[in-house]
Amino acid sequence: MFTDRRDAGRKLARALISYAGPGALVLALPRGGVPVAQEVAREIGSAMDVLIVRKLGAPTNPEFAFGAVGEGGAVVLDEPTIAALGISDQVRDRLITEAATEIEHRVDVFRGGRDLTEVSGRTVIVVDDGLATGATAAAAVAVLRHLDAEKIVLAIPTGSAQAVQRLSSLADEVVCLETPRDFGSVGAQYESFPQISETEVLESMRS
């Protein structure tokens, strides 16, 4: 149990001390991952940015991802899943376009349109406030592979055992402090877990 996201970030940083220094890049998944990542970056002395990704969910089950879209036009598709679900090219392209439009909006909001910090050839630490299904984190890993990150570390304070196991086969390393036996939701693992507004994200990025 964590007091709040900043408490979780400080505790998570201790488990990431081997990455201390300017070599690694901390990437937050907004919105909830930003205050956690801010504490991690501060404690280990690394640069921080936000990573904007959108999973591509099946039309009949949005939580079931068949791919991901990231910044800079990055698109990662799971062709066997697309075929198994019978997703037409028209539907696939529509969902990709919708995701890309949302990404452009979020890049404008959170970074003023600035490009993502270069990740090619770098160790990247992806931080979120928790891992429930793991779909968004999986999308982030897929996009970072597409962008040629050298090593991808997924760091979360808490997560379901199933999601952690799934992501362990995708990321190069997963650092998770707690995997409660009765994991109900990410918020249930925090004493204080308020919604984070876009304004709060922007203030965190400026500080």
What does this structure look like?
This protein is α/β, with parallel strands linked by helices. It has 2 domains: 141 residues, Rossmann fold; 58 residues, PRTase-like (Ybab, Chain: A, 2-Layer Sandwich). It has 7 helices and 8 strands, in the order H-E-H-E-E-E-E-H-H-E-H-E-H-E-H. The strands form 2 sheets. A 5-stranded parallel β-sheet has the order 2-1-6-7-8, with helices on both faces. Helix 2 links the parallel strand 1 and strand 2. Helix 1 packs across helix 2. The longest helix has 23 residues.
Summed up:
The chain is α/β, with parallel strands linked by helices and 207 residues long. The chain contains seven helices and eight strands; from the N terminus they run H-E-H-E-E-E-E-H-H-E-H-E-H-E-H. It folds into two domains: 5-52 and 114-206, Rossmann fold; 54-111, 2-Layer Sandwich (Ybab, Chain: A), CATH 3.30.1310.
Name the features.
Rossmann fold, Ybab, Chain: A, 8 strands, 22% strand, 7 helices, five-stranded parallel sheet, 207 residues, alpha/beta, three-stranded antiparallel sheet, 2 domains
- pLDDT < 50 stretches: none
* Secondary-structure element order, N to C: HEHEEEEHHEHEHEH
Category from helices, strands and their pairing:
alpha/beta
CATH fold-level label of the largest domain: Rossmann fold
Radius of gyration: 16 Å
Helix content: 25-40%
Strand order of the largest sheet: 2-1-6-7-8
Could you give the distance between the termini?
A: 26 Å
Number of E strands = 8
> How many structural domains does the protein architecture include?
2
As a percent range, the share of strand residues is 15-25%
- What's the helix count? 7
